[in-house]
Amino acid sequence: MKYAAWACALMMVMNGAGAAERDQVMLVLDASGSMWGQIDGRSKVEIAREAVADLVKTWNPEVDLGLIAYGHRRKGDCADIETVLPAGPLHANDYLAKVNALNAKGMTPLSQAVINAADALKASERKATVILVSDGEETCELDPCAVGKSLEAKGVEFTAHVIGFDVPNPAHQAQLRCLAESTGGRYFNASDAASLDKALGQIAVASTEKPLPAVPATLIPPANIVAATAVEVSFDGPGEARDWVGFAKPGSDEQAYLDYDWVKMPKGVAVLRAPAEPGDYELRYVSARRKPALLAQIKVSVAAALATVSGPSSVISGDVVRVHATGPADNRHWIGFAPKDSDARSYRDYLRPDASGSTDGTLQAPSVPGDYELRYVLNESEKVAASQPITVLPAKAMLIDAPVRVVANQEVVIDWSGPLGRHHWIGFIRKGGDSGDYLTYAYLAQPSPARFRAPREPGEYELAFVLGGDGGEQILARHPIGVD
Questions:
Q1: 96-110 mean pLDDT
Q2: 296 and 287 Cβ atoms separated by less than 8 Å
Q3: Domain span at residue 425?
Q4: FRET partner for 26 with CA separation of 20 to 30 A, picked from 168, 278, 304, 351?
């Protein structure tokens, strides 16, 4: 009997030792209200869903994956955090159905969500990895940096990788970066769909696959590189999934980049956008599956881009102004209005440069009078390459020979003078009311006259010329009118 009991116990120990513990990863997804914000005409919610779909397509089936979401059920509630799926073998269709059902609406309790993820993975007892995707700062009481340090101290092998999705504020970036780096994790800035997909892919590889040994790679840049222009770089390397070639600042982290292109074959040409600021940089070949990841790097110099922008010295607020500009042609550069002495990210109205490098177009002047600049800005607000001062003067408007009485629901034709613009309008408002008390109206995207119908209900009203735009609506002219 003693022998049988001993043999049974030994068998249990052997079975336990032979069953390898699966690695576990928890994806923490921001579903706060700000995720309805748009990037390139698409909501961040939609972009995040597609990026997660790409993630699960290539997920290592030997690694468990779970899902925690926050801000998706209630507004203004810091306790709105849910373990949507516990970490377990991935069933892609079920997982994506849960992700697609999330409805962004609430707060951003990102720190507590990461704590919940660590608890769910039993991070104090075993290896645990958390991937956080957040589009903003902590909006509840905890400090992400302190939380990261605390979890690192408690965890056996706890790592938090963090992606800041559309987080332009440097202070908010620093908050998220500290959370990641204090746990030995990586922080990524993702400004659009492509960079979010790239960041998730790199984190997935780092979290689920054992690295391969490094192999040589080569890069051949063009002889001359001009800031903010397309650059073709020849490469030769392993050409594995999620390898990339890109620009980086000298001495930066091996995964850091300014612009990049995916490598889809062992030999080929990567097309990159040069940095907007002239100076010394590095071109890099970075592997997703090998350690060290940096397989090749060469130093390059980027020359300044030449650009000009010109227009009138003054314009009436809200009016249309013609501008001429020359400079690098790319759909990430813009020509537009900005307040005087503001940073490169400020703008009021803008247009994209023509592919020829010479642009003639129109802009809508700001509705608030003051000192502004016309600017040629590179790489989505990275650098102001050229500028010209322009003064925006107060606007005046007139309703010319407007009738005193009209018939209900009859078309009225109103001659007018004043600023032309797609946000301005002339219309009927209630007597003594403001622009919010409108009934019928016509936008002023075309020159005088304006055509629209009178209200259906007889009574005393006013015709109003309303200036729209960045400063809100203001009434520039009024005219009493009766409707019979």
A1: 93
A2: no
A3: 398-483
A4: 168
